[in-house]
């Protein structure tokens, strides 16, 4: 019997689940809502019930499943699958691996959600199987994963790859959710771009961004890119500021780890080629020439499937 791996990607609003072949192809994928009531105590049961009902629907036995790999938000002990704190879920000191193994009866491995997205892109996405990958995710926040010689970096207590909290502005930066100021997350995330473009638009009322802000109360990354492509000065200045700081951070990381692929994911990466072009220019300006020559910068290709495919890769290597 050909076995399947199970990839699970736990988010604050939905849980994505997939049955994946041993070579990384999705057989079936679906999602269920994340029930965060009572501090997330129903989540493991919901995942277990959903997997069993999907097996029944496909007329497949439970023995078809080899192992489960799961990504979860928060601070995680990789060895034990213990969640120290997952803010959006309500878990604190929660033995996720142990609970899911008890419920499913097969082995489970747990990692941080940003790490499994990076692994997914390495295995079946923009990473093209390259063993040295720097993944940067630009969404509501800035996340990332660092893969060296085919292994995701965790560090001494699971904090490796917290790219969003590299300090970009040492003095006088915007406040960050982590309690400090000036993190790259306050600049290159969707919220950071919205903040900077708003500041620029309010200084230049002739900008199309100003009119957009008056109308909608918010400016999105794709609006900034579209306005910059039409020559809007406030939009061009916003993109220059964002890509300057992000390009510098990525170059410093690349100088340290020498990646073959730099994968940019998250909603902001889809804002348009102008943003990516400028980012690549800034990166090449700051990186060592040989490091820049060895690194190909690409937009992530797996979208919402990155997490479940990365989870499946973890499951495969945990058998």
UniProtKB/TrEMBL annotation:
<protein>
    <recommendedName>
        <fullName>Glucokinase</fullName>
        <ecNumber>2.7.1.2</ecNumber>
    </recommendedName>
</protein>
<dbReference type="GO" id="GO:0004340">
    <property type="term" value="F:glucokinase activity"/>
</dbReference>
<dbReference type="InterPro" id="IPR049874">
    <property type="entry name" value="ROK_cs"/>
</dbReference>
<dbReference type="InterPro" id="IPR043129">
    <property type="entry name" value="ATPase_NBD"/>
</dbReference>
<comment type="similarity">
    <text>Belongs to the ROK (NagC/XylR) family.</text>
</comment>
<dbReference type="InterPro" id="IPR000600">
    <property type="entry name" value="ROK"/>
</dbReference>
<keyword id="KW-0067">ATP-binding</keyword>
<dbReference type="Pfam" id="PF00480">
    <property type="entry name" value="ROK"/>
</dbReference>
<dbReference type="InterPro" id="IPR004654">
    <property type="entry name" value="ROK_glcA"/>
</dbReference>
<keyword id="KW-0547">Nucleotide-binding</keyword>
<keyword id="KW-0418">Kinase</keyword>
<keyword id="KW-0808">Transferase</keyword>
């Amino acid at each position: 019997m050909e076995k399947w791996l199970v990839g699970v990607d736990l988010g604050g609003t939905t849980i994505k689940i997939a049955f994946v072949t041993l070579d990384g192809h999705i057989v079936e994928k679906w999602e269920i809502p994340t029930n965060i009531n009572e501090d997330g105590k129903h989540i493991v049961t919901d995942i277990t019930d959903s997997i069993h009902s999907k097996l029944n629907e496909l007329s497949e036995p439970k023995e078809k499943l080899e192992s489960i790999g799961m990504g979860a938000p928060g601070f995680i002990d990789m060895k034990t699958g213990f969640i120290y704190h997952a803010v959006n879920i309500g878990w604190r000191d929660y033995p996720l691996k142990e609970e899911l193994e008890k419920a499913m009866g097969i082995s489970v491995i747990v990692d941080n959600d940003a790490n499994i997205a990076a692994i997914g892109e390495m295995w079946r996405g923009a990473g093209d199987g390259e063993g040295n990958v720097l993944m940067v995710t630009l969404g509501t926040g800035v996340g990332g994963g660092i893969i060296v010689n085919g292994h995701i970096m965790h560090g001494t207590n699971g904090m490796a790859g917290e790219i969003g909290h590299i300090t970009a502005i040492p003095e006088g930066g915007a406040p960050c959710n982590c309690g400090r100021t000036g993190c790259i997350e306050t600049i290159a995330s969707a919220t950071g771009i919205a903040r900077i473009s708003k500041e620029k638009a309010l200084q230049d009322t002739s900008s199309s961004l100003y009119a957009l802000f008056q109308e909608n109360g918010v400016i999105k990354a794709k609006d900034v890119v579209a306005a910059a492509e039409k020559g809007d000065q406030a939009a061009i200045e916003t993109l220059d500021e964002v890509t300057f700081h992000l390009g510098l951070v990525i170059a410093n990381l690349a100088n340290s780890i020498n990646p073959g692929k730099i994968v940019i994911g998250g909603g902001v990466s889809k804002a348009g080629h102008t943003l990516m072009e400028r980012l690549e220019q800034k990166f090449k300006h700051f990186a060592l020439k040989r490091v820049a020559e060895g690194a190909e910068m690409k937009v992530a290709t797996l979208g919402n499937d990155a997490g479940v495919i990365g989870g499946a890769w973890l499951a495969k290597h945990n058998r």
